[in-house]
Design brief:
Layout (H helix, E strand, L loop, with lengths): L9 E5 L4 H11 L3 E6 L14 E3 L5 E5 H4 L6 E4 L5 H12 L3 E4 L13 H7 L4 E6 L14 H8 L23 H22 L7 E5 H7 L2 H10 L16 E5 L4 E5 L3 H10 L4 H4 L6 H6 L1 H9 L7 H11 L3 E3 L3 H6 L1 H5 L3 E6 L3 E6 L23 H7 L4 H9 L4
Parallel strand pairs: 1-2, 1-6, 2-5, 6-7, 7-8
Antiparallel strand pairs: 3-4, 9-10, 10-11, 12-13
């Protein structure tokens, strides 16, 4: 049995910043051999997206931002200037040996350098070539650049995030993290693995994958979008309230907040007993899920009044005993301290050649036969250039000449 699920898969990663690098990091976690292509000297621009920046063992600040570290483990770095003919030759040689090429330049950029799918697929018909762009390869906005916040806005994600207009601080709200980038990375990695399966199991060949961040942002609205398609009505913002069963809400306690969900009638009955108001469950307005949705504001007013009299810890103990799904509203430091998170080893410590001990978030996928147990540190710019070029047949003198001309 292979030691990793994607062992033997070679990925040529010509992407930078977040969405596509996260996708290739996931492939690398699963055992693929990921070769990250970076500009000489400058590297992936996300290296500059700090502070915070990684520090050396001696506490000195480096030039690698935590942002870059978050998306580039389990990769090797080769620095190549693809604007130079010699650089294009190197990349074509690497593409000929690769299973997957992924890039996220503006539409048409790589075609100018003979590094597009049409050209490279002639050298390697088995190549799976994935382009990740803001708006896709066609349509009136195909050439337009964009970043995560733009797609949160355009996809409608912001329209359903935040508080209603009539409440203090109301209005569309961006999700705090780069959510469309992250969701796009998952769609991208899934698409690449589907293409590999088609090629290697179903007798197919290589193919082109066109991924759009706007498409992914819209698709990720899931049941919100389906509600709109069915009803014709735009979903309304509900702050920290859910959009399914009621209650699905954050509630202030005496020393913090909890989030609870009573997703069915039985759980609602248990909740009412836990807060000392079993009569709410018998109220015809609230007895059934549809009634609780129709009478949402009235019910929430009653529930809000119940929780400020006890601490978060006290309420969680009561709700756990009653079988009501609930959890503390944590900040990130609190989340890392959760006993369940620590038990699941979601924070790992790896050895970095410059920083020494470096903490990272683990991959959440648990595979019984091919576990994810290797985490190599994010590479320095061009750290593996000489070794990779030597594998292509370049001599030390060849590599020295390329370095003199700034090609690598």
């Amino acid at each position: 049995m292979p030691s990793a699920a994607l062992a033997g898969v070679k990925v040529l990663d010509m992407s930078r910043v977040l969405a596509a690098p996260l996708a290739t990091q996931l492939l690398g976690d699963l055992g693929a051999e990921v070769l990250k292509i970076e500009r000489p000297v400058v590297g992936d621009e996300s290296r500059t997206y700090g502070p915070p920046f990684m520090r050396t063992r001696d506490g000195e600040e480096t030039k690698d931002a935590a942002f870059y570290l978050s998306a580039n483990r389990n990769k090797r770095s080769v620095s190549v200037d693809f604007a130079a003919p010699d650089g294009q030759e190197i990349l074509r040689a690497l593409a000929a040996q690769s299973d997957v090429l992924i890039e996220n330049f503006k539409t048409g950029t790589l075609k100018r350098y003979g590094l597009d799918y049409e050209t490279l697929s002639k050298l390697n018909p088995r190549l799976i070539y994935c382009s990740v762009t803001g708006f896709g390869q066609d349509g009136p906005l195909a050439a337009k650049p964009g970043y995560d916040g733009v797609f949160q806005a355009m996809s409608g994600l912001m329209s359903v995030s935040g508080y209603p207009d009539h409440e203090p601080g109301g209005g569309p709200m961006k999700v705090g993290i780069s959510m469309v980038d992250i969701l796009t990375s998952l769609y991208t990695a899934n698409a690449i693995q589907a293409a590999l399966y088609h090629r290697d199991v179903n007798g197919g060949k290589g193919q082109y994958i066109d991924i759009s961040l706007l498409d992914c942002g819209l698709a990720s609205l899931s049941h919100f979008a389906m509600n709109c398609l069915v009803s014709g009505e735009t979903p309304q913002r509900r702050g920290n309230g859910g959009f399914g069963g009621v209650p699905s809400q954050a509630f202030p306690c005496s020393d913090g907040q909890i989030f609870l969900v009573a997703g069915n009638d039985v759980q609602f009955q248990r909740l009412c007993g836990a807060i000392g108001h079993p009569e709410y469950a018998a109220d015809p307005r609230f007895a059934k899920a549809s009634g609780r949705i129709q009478n949402r504001d009235t019910l929430l007013g009653l529930l809000y009044a119940a929780f400020p009299h006890k601490t978060v810890t006290e309420w969680l103990a009561i709700l756990d005993e009653s079988g009501v799904p609930s959890g503390r509203v944590n900040d990130f430091v609190d989340a890392l301290s959760e006993p369940q998170v620590q038990h699941r080893q979601m924070v790992r410590q790896i050895e970095h050649p410059v920083a020494g001990a470096l903490k990272i978030l683990a991959n959440p996928i648990r595979l019984s036969e091919t576990p994810i147990d290797t985490y190599t540190p994010p590479p320095a710019i061009g750290e593996h250039t000489e070794r990779v070029l030597a594998g292509l047949g370049y001599t030390p003198a060849d590599i020295a000449r390329l370095r003199e001309r700034g090609v690598v």
